[in-house]
């Protein structure tokens, strides 16, 4: 049935006029598959479906490339684990002497479990309560970028006496002309109060933290503001470090321009080197370091046609990967089932295994006519993928697997239904 419908689609496509076909062919450049179809099959047979698959070799290459791009000698890379908290992956970052950027106490907890020294963890978060602030300090974290006078005051209040010498305090910058309408950070006009507050208790403000906003692919959005950020940092009399944050983009549309680490690294190095003072540079890449290193595999469980459109049901759900549907992000989807030619590709929705109205993993993808049992691969899910998965819709979460040196190993077990009872008082 599907096959004859597919034939009809094929004939319909063949009737399209030349101009339209030309546009389609330009758009439909075949995407590279993340690995062989045999391996995809082997992974699903071994670990089950759906499955997060990380490419450790690719992750290492990416880390190396980013590290090399910023040649300034006093640079400290801190991976933003908000994007991915898997311990096995965090250990890979550690093996490259990267530290960790923590958005929350939970990020710090995971970082410590992965073996990071507290001095290699930078906390740049928001709105901790008293107990949490104390916990962060008791864990031994030395660099804290605080985003309000109230948080700075709380930190100064609860800081144990013996930590005063080792602590590095910074302010998160809020500059509406650059960061737009953001709730986070402090404006330069508050710096005076912040300096007075810290000096009163014998501490100094030595850092400025800047965050451009996540997923920015335009390199100039960063390079154009370097001078302004540095000029603002110079308003801090005890300035010793600049944290240039994260936010560096990843080209989820494979045919679009990517953030250029080499240009960014060269410009930032040039500007800081010529400051005439020894400033430490902290960089906290998240998405750009890990997005491209993972694939979510799922298997087709149902195919139907609604007019010209192919509706494919898979054994995964929006709760396993929320970004494309809930947050409007785009992810390329590929399959090992080859199309005979570009005209046997069909507009396809890849739908999750619930009736939730937003349960889509991809919309309007161009894919061949699929069959039950085919495998689809959702690309570039390493950042904000598993980390944003949830138990919404009450489906246990998938397993995670790491490919390295031609082998694969489990790095997080698949959940079973018992997880749905965790902490419930029966
Ligand atoms: C302060 C800070 N640094 C780095 C990151 C990582 O951002 P990205 O994944 O866009 O690089 C975040 C994300 O929330 C952040 O808040």
Summarize the structure.
The chain has two domains: 2-53 and 292-416, Lyase, Ornithine Decarboxylase, Chain A, domain 1; 59-290, Alanine racemase (TIM Barrel), CATH 3.20.20.
Please supply descriptive tags for the structure shown above.
8-stranded parallel barrel; 2 domains; TIM Barrel; binds pyridoxal-5'-phosphate; 426 residues; 17 strands
Explain this structure to me?
The chain is globular. The protein has two domains: 2-53 and 292-416, Lyase, Ornithine Decarboxylase, Chain A, domain 1 (Beta Barrel), CATH 2.40.37; 59-290, Alanine racemase (TIM Barrel). It has 15 helices and 17 strands. Strand 13 and strand 14 (360-368) form a beta hairpin. Strands 1, 10, 11, 12, 13, 14, 15, 16 and 17 form a nine-stranded mixed sheet that branches. The protein has an eight-stranded parallel barrel with strand order 2-3-4-5-6-7-8-9, surrounded by five helices. By secondary structure, it is α/β, with parallel strands linked by helices. Bound molecules: pyridoxal-5'-phosphate. The site of pyridoxal-5'-phosphate has 19 residues, from helix 14.
